[in-house]
Amino acid sequence: MENILYITSGKTGIPRFTYNELIELEKKNLHFTLCLTQLKPGPWMPDKKWPVLSAKSKHVFLGSLFLIISKPLLFFNLVRFSIQESVFPYFLMAVSFNQQIKNKKAVTSIHCQMADKKLYIGYFLKRIQNKPLSTTLHAHELYQRKIYDAPQKLKYLFSQCDKIITISEFNKNLLIEKLDLSPDKIRLMRLFPVVENLEKLTEKTKILIVANWAEKKGFKTLIEAVKKLDRKDFIVWIVGGTYYSENSINLNQLIKEYQVEENFLILGRLGGNVLDLVFSSCDIFCLPSFTEYYEDGMPKEREGIPVALMEAMAWGKPVISTHHAGIPELVHNILVEERNVDQLAEAIEFYLENKNLWSEMGKKNQKQVNQNYTKENVQVLMDTFKSLNPS
Q1: DSSP classification of residue 233
Q2: Which of 46, 58, 322, 349 is the most buried (most CB within 10 A)?
Q3: CATH class of 198-371
Q4: Mean pLDDT of 361-383
Q5: What angle in degrees, to the nearest 10, is found between the helix axes of 118-129 and 72-84?
Q6: Second-level CATH architecture of 3-188
Q7: Domain segments of the chain: what residues?
Q8: What would the mean pLDDT of 282-299 be, rounded to a whole number?
Q9: pLDDT tens digits, residue range 40-71?
Q10: How many other β-carbons are positioned within 10 Å of the β-carbon of residue 29?
């Protein structure tokens, strides 16, 4: 069975097309070990179950010692070559990766995602392990200054690849013309988009909730109402995330427990123009807030008047919320009782069955916000400060 050393970078997480590629390879039961030149936070991070290696100084030391003892001539030849090519750090990465994989499943081949300087890592590993080397060449690799100024060096590097994959006929022709590569060595693999959430984003009624993952926001009530409705013609977009408090909930786990994954899409924390786009794209806004209580019955947590409700109304959206704290001062319809799953399900179904009312209800909400909840309200604070400092 194949076990690939897959060399790539995670400079801003893994590139989206790389992540998609790895997911599909995994579905085809291909085993791989990621060798990352770096890894920083980004939208697409390695799956927790994927084996991931990073270069570490202790492995460089142990790996160098092992190679000096077992393959001294090869080691010093590669050191000399890496210094001549000004890629010594990439040689050290290769030594580190080689040391870390010695006790893992037998490697069958080495692959470099993007044929820039990372390809040197693959080249060194090929020489050390005597395994086939492949690389995927996208675009920027074809326009490195080295290709123009020292093409012979890159011709040699590419000639050491057993297979070169590229993403367009245009690139393939450039490889043949610029680097004198044999067409038989080049394989064409077009990239692919992943739009599995297309239906969740475009074709269903979109209900939006924007809130921290706190109990008082009513997420569980909403999930139970969605479960009760048992309809596939709407999707709940969730904007927000945990805020690491004792009142935080694990929303991913809750959605799985109720088996309503098809009805929810978690968008994470958003702000600025991106959040504005989500508000403008949703059809209905829902926030079923409720009061939390201490064991002695005293209120523990309540809303004031959620700004997210004001924002949805300002966008001209119909809303659903609860008879809770100050919310009825803002929202005049539709309001349901706190924690009432049946009423919430009925309210959602009412909007789903009466799309012709969305515009009318939205305009009323917009008018209410524009009349009573404007930036001019900050004048109260200004007047307070002036009254405290009459001079």
Answers
A1: S
A2: 322
A3: alpha beta
A4: 95
A5: 160
A6: 3-Layer(aba) Sandwich (3.40)
A7: 3-188, 198-371
A8: 95
A9: 988 889 999 999 999 999 999 999 999 999 99
A10: 8
